[in-house]
């Protein structure tokens, strides 16, 4: 497997305190005796053969990554790729077979039951695909549920819940019941419930998959807005590449429980790790994702005095300037000239959708 | 384009390829062969070795059972187990008697109970208002007044008391078990389910004999048997409700860091609330039906006057208390159903709680006044005497006489046709063949219909029936059960298909069937006795009427459940209505039909016993006699066990024949006394 990651995760070699979340060599093997398979050659077998041989299924296979404070980290893959299992292992809704999950410097996998509850209550909240709201409670009490089980007094938790309900744009619906709301609004309730406890880490498990496309777009924008306002660290699971590219600071692509590639959106599109990723991303309009860095060429002294563009600018946004100029434009990384782009560089990507020269 | 259309037309004229010739004869053909051989053998051997046991004769085993009973009774003061059960019974009895002194019998030195009819009615109406709204309150008021008006106030109160004492204990025991069933692993589940299966497939009467032995007769036995009978639906339905809480919700709330106790109290129980109330409704209805039957063991309540009148063949006398039982059943059913709806509404905030509290508080004032008056004024304490009950009874009696005079010929003809055409030949074949011939034939049929899976339990049950020494009686009861089941299935197929195909028929019949299912089985005997007198046929018809609603609804739901696109597809091929029914709808709803037949069998079997004293004879009579005569206890117990064995045998054969999993494991399916919640 060609696995390309930003940094080779080597257990504890990276100080865990830097990251909001660090996952080291995480495994989940479903089935009886799954823990015994670990470390044997069987663990390296492809899924169907392992199933045939032992009856066990690998959900998450030796996954490592780190998420920085305030980052939106997207895990994407098709159904069955293990992404939902992965996110559940982070707060041990599914018990991982092996590995470390470090949240705020603490290894979740070693926490005892009450410590784990503590962690779920205060550090990491989750938003679910099917909302998981309590139908017998009003919106405000759904939102306040996390506070209620922590033992926050009613008055206080209602005040806090009302604040969060307002934040997600549900003012006026505090006393509605979930079944009186549309799907998008129900997911706002789910979002508010996750935010109410003021956790540092937000986990999203395909939160918008059950919504129709227009509502989904609204909700994505809502997440972007909340991220700008609150600067929470987010781990976002999705099977929708467009969603991943839209939201993610970095994207982790999974297949059959394994990490295929980790990188920023333009890295994924510009330099797919293998055929799988290349195939996966083939439909994406490159000009919407790639930055100038991926399309520029070496400055052969023809830079002259063309307009200055930044290397991390998206091609689509820079296209107008370059095409208007009728000549090479300078691409700068800060103050340093790193390359030039001309009409042909832009058109090759925008119109012909060709591969960027590697 | 035309070239594309042409080929199908050519094909349409060709007949569809004939299905491959079956390599073996179908099962029903084998069954016919077995029966044919059986009839031939019967013709030569009938009357030999039928194992007939005379009315007062006992086998050694039966005498041993009687001895066992005597030994148990003798050891009452020394045996710790008996002491325990008697102590338990004593507590139940005290609870019932305390309630009786409060509302139904004079509490010495008072000449009347502590609370008179006016106070009890007022409190009941207030409760109806509180749990279900003013319509139900009116229904409750009308019901309670009718109890007094027809002269059965204290019997009605006794029945209510026995029902509610049993239900309270059932809830205390059942809810923890339901939580266990709803939250434990698969193993715990299958253990509880198996036990519940056994309890639910046992015909009602079989509980009574051992209970009488260990708890004595009267209120204690009534409470215990009602309790045992009413417990399974609560455990099963409430457990199912808790288990059915969506796992996404559980997961989402778990991720917020709740403890398991918080999960149960704040998520699982509230979300299962509606199902739990449905379970409670079922439990109350089952309890009422059993508390009525507990009259056989001298349990207090409305069952007693019914039973006494039935013994005397007094239809009018049985009619009035029977009618009041129906009134009470309808009242309890409507109240609990409405309460479940109201609680659901309240949980969704669609009821103004503040306004409701004020209404209830205001309504409490006249209730307190009524309570106070009922303690100090005679007219409010004891229901004023009137002649309504007896005059209704007389009217019913004269109506019955007139009816029998006018239509006796028709009913008699119907009875004779069924008796001559169905009951007698079958009974003759089953009971008059030598026992080994019948046993062999039954085993062969089990093998043909259900394969080895059916043969094993059949052999074991037949051996059991032989050992307990009531072979001849068992075969007669088996005949009645089979005949009844055939009649039930005919009705179920006709009405079920009709209901499924015509919405209007469904709308018309379903409420009637629902009402039919709330009525305790006991009550069905009364009109049948009036029409047909005390014979086997009476018990069979009562059983058919008792079993038909369930079977009809099962078939109707099954046929209606056939995918409409399949039916449409068949119609588009030009099938006639008859073809549509026989070739599409019935085969595709086979599961429901087999289930209906299975339920019909079990219903008929329990009715065969209840009908024991209106001429059903055979095992039913043996059981009933076992209650009343101590020297017949052993034979009664043997008859009870034989009934269970017949039930298990028929159940296993039917299941194996349908090749399906244990049917009672599906808790969403309503248990047999009432099968749909609407």
From TrEMBL, chain A:
In the record, biological process GO terms are:
glycine betaine transport; response to osmotic stress
**Nucleotide-binding keyword on record:** yes
Which molecular function GO terms apply here?
A: ATP binding; ATP hydrolysis activity
Gene Ontology cellular component?
Answer: membrane
Specify whether Mitochondrion is a keyword of the entry: no
| Entry keywords, A to Z | ATP-binding, CBS domain, Nucleotide-binding, Transport
Q: Output the superkingdom of the source species.
A: Bacteria
Q: Which residues span the membrane? A: none
| NCBIfam families cross-referenced by the UniProt entry | proV
Q: Which family does it belong to?
A: Belongs to the ABC transporter superfamily.
Identify this protein by name. Answer: ATP-binding cassette domain-containing protein
Q: Which organism is it from?
A: Nocardioides iriomotensis
TrEMBL record, chain B:
Q: Which domain of life is it from?
A: Bacteria
Give a yes or no for keyword Transcription in this entry: no
Provide this UniProt record's keywords sorted from A to Z.
Answer: Cell membrane, Membrane, Transmembrane, Transmembrane helix, Transport
What positions does the domain ABC transmembrane type-1 occupy?
156-336, 474-654
Q: Name one GO molecular function term.
A: amine transmembrane transporter activity
Q: Which residues cross the membrane?
A: 28-45, 136-153, 160-185, 205-231, 275-297, 317-337, 358-377, 435-468, 480-501, 521-548, 600-621, 633-650
| Record's subcellular location | Cell membrane; Membrane
What GO cellular component term, any one, is given? ATP-binding cassette (ABC) transporter complex
Name of this chain's protein: ABC transporter permease subunit
Q: Which organism's genome codes for this protein?
A: Nocardioides iriomotensis
């Amino acid at each position: 497997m060609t696995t390309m990651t930003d940094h080779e995760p080597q257990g504890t070699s990276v100080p865990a305190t830097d990251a909001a979340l660090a996952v080291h060599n995480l495994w989940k093997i479903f089935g009886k005796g799954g823990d015994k398979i670990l470390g044997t050659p069987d663990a390296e077998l492809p899924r169907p053969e392992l199933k045939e041989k032992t009856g066990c299924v690998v959900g998450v296979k030796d996954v490592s990554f780190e998420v920085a404070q305030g980052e939106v980290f997207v895990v994407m893959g098709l159904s069955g790729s293990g992404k939902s299992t992965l996110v559940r292992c982070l707060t041990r809704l599914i018990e991982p077979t092996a590995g470390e999950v470090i949240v705020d410097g603490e290894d979740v996998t070693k926490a005892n039951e009450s410590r784990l509850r503590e962690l779920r209550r205060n550090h990491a909240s989750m938003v679910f695909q099917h909302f998981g709201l309590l139908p017998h409670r009003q919106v405000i009490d759904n939102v306040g549920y996390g506070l209620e089980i922590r033992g926050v007094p009613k008055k206080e938790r209602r005040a806090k819940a009302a604040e969060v309900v307002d934040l997600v744009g549900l003012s006026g619906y505090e006393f509605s019941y979930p079944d009186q709301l549309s799907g998008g609004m129900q997911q706002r309730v789910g979002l508010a419930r996750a935010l109410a406890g003021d956790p540092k880490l937000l986990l999203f498990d395909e939160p918008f998959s059950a919504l129709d496309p227009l509502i989904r777009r609204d909700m994505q924008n809502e997440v972007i807005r909340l991220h700008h306002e609150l600067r929470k660290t987010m781990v976002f699971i999705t099977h929708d590449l467009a969603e991943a590219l839209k939201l993610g600071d970095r994207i982790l692509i999974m297949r059959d429980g394994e990490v295929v590639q980790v990188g920023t959106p333009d890295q994924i599109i510009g330099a797919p790790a293998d055929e799988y990723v290349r195939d996966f991303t083939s439909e994406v309009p490159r000009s919407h994702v790639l930055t100038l860095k991926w399309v520029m060429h070496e400055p052969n002294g023809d830079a002259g005095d063309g307009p200055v563009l930044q290397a991390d600018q998206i091609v689509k946004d820079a296209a107008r300037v370059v095409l208007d100029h009728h000549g090479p434009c300078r691409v700068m990384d800060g103050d340093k000239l790193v390359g030039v782009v001309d009409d042909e560089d832009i058109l090759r990507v925008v119109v012909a959708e060709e591969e960027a020269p590697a | 384009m035309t070239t594309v259309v042409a080929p199908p037309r050519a094909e349409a004229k060709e007949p569809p390829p004939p299905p491959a010739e079956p390599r073996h004869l179908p099962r029903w053909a084998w069954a016919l062969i077995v029966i044919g051989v059986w009839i031939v053998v019967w013709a030569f051997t009938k009357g030999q070795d039928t194992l007939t046991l005379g009315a007062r004769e006992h086998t050694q085993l039966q005498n041993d059972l009687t001895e066992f009973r005597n030994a148990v009774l003798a050891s009452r003061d020394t045996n710790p187990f008996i002491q325990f059960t008697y102590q338990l019974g004593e507590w139940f009895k005290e609870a019932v008697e305390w309630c009786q002194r409060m509302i139904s019998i004079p509490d010495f030195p008072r000449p009347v109970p502590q609370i008179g009819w006016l106070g009890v009615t007022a409190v009941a109406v207030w409760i109806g208002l509180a749990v279900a709204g003013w319509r139900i309150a009116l229904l409750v008021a009308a019901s309670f007044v009718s109890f007094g008006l027809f002269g059965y106030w204290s019997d009605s109160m006794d029945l209510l008391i026995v029902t509610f004492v049993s239900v309270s204990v059932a809830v205390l025991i059942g809810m923890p078990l339901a939580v266990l069933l709803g939250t434990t692993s698969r193993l715990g589940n299958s253990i509880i389910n198996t036990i519940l299966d056994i309890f639910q497939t046992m015909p009602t009467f079989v509980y009574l004999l051992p209970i009488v032995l260990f708890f004595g007769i009267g209120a204690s036995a009534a409470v215990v048997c009602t309790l045992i009978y009413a417990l399974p639906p609560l455990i099963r339905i409430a457990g199912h409700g808790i288990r059915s809480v969506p796992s996404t919700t559980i997961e989402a709330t778990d991720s917020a860091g709740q403890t398991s106790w918080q999960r149960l109290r704040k998520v699982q129980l509230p979300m299962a609330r509606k199902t739990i109330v449905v379970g409670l409704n079922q439990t109350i209805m089952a309890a009422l039906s059993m508390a009525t039957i507990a009259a056989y063991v001298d349990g207090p309540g409305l069952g007693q006057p019914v039973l006494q009148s039935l013994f005397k063949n007094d239809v009018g006398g049985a009619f009035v208390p029977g009618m009041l039982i129906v009134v009470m059943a309808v009242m309890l059913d409507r109240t609990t159903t409405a309460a479940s709806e109201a609680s659901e509404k309240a949980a969704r905030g669609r009821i103004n709680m503040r306004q409701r509290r004020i209404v209830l508080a205001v309504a409490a004032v006249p209730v307190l006044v009524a309570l106070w008056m009922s303690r100090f004024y005679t007219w409010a304490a004891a229901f004023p005497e009137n002649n309504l009950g007896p005059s209704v009874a007389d009217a019913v009696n004269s109506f019955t006489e007139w009816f029998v005079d006018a239509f006796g010929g028709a009913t008699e003809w119907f009875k004779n046709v069924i008796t001559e055409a169905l009951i007698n030949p079958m009974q003759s074949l089953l009971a008059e063949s030598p026992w080994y011939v019948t046993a062999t034939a039954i085993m062969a049929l089990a093998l043909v219909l259900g394969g080895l899976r059916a043969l094993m339990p059949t052999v074991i049950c037949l051996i059991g029936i032989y050992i307990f020494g009531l072979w001849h009686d068992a075969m007669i009861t088996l005949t009645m059960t089979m005949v009844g089941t055939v009649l039930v299935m005919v009705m179920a197929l006709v009405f079920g298909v009709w209901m499924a195909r015509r919405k209007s028929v469904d709308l018309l019949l379903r409420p009637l069937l629902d009402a039919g299912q709330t009525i305790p089985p006991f009550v069905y005997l009364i009109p049948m006795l009036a029409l047909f007198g005390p014979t086997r046929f009476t018990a069979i018809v009562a059983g058919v009427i008792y079993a038909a609603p369930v079977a009809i609804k099962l078939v109707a739901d099954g046929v209606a459940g056939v995918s409409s696109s399949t039916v449409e597809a068949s119609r588009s091929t030009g099938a006639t209505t008859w073809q549509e029914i026989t070739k599409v709808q019935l085969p595709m709803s086979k599961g429901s039909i087999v289930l209906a037949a299975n339920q019909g069998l079990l219903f008929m079997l329990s009715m065969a016993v209840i009908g024991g004293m209106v001429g059903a004879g055979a095992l039913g009579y043996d059981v009933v006699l076992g209650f009343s005569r101590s020297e017949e206890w052993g034979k009664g117990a043997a008859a009870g066990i034989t009934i269970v064995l017949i039930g298990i045998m028929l159940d296993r054969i039917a299941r194996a024949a349908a090749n399906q999993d244990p049917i009672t494991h599906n808790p969403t399916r309503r248990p047999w006394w009432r099968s749909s919640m609407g």
